[in-house]
Design goal:
Helix content: 55-70%
Radius of gyration: 25 Å
Number of strands: 0
Number of domains: 1
Largest sheet: none
Strand content: under 5%
Distance between the termini: 74 Å
Structural class: mainly alpha
């Protein structure tokens, strides 16, 4: 029983290593954001947003302005 368990353990680790190597050495597909180009002008990210999430000192201001705009939009119909 111990021999069978050892063989199964070794086989498991060999398969895991083989899968990791094939994924790592496989063809690299570049991540192209073509969906962003199809968005309307109002839905485009700001010019200052270099990546997602936008980094830098203006990140918290960016998020706060977004929440304020969402709150203002949702409260338009409320009395």
């Amino acid at each position: 029983m111990l021999v069978l368990l050892s063989l199964l353990s070794v086989a498991y680790f060999v398969v895991v290593l083989w899968v990791r190597r094939t994924r790592r050495s496989g063809p690299a597909t570049p991540t192209v954001l073509t969906a962003v180009a199809a968005l309307p002008e109002d839905d485009q990210p700001p010019v200052t947003a270099v990546g997602w999430p936008p980094g830098g000192s203006g990140f918290t201001t960016y998020v706060d302005e977004g929440f304020d705009a969402l709150d203002a939009y949702l409260s338009e119909g409320a009395a």
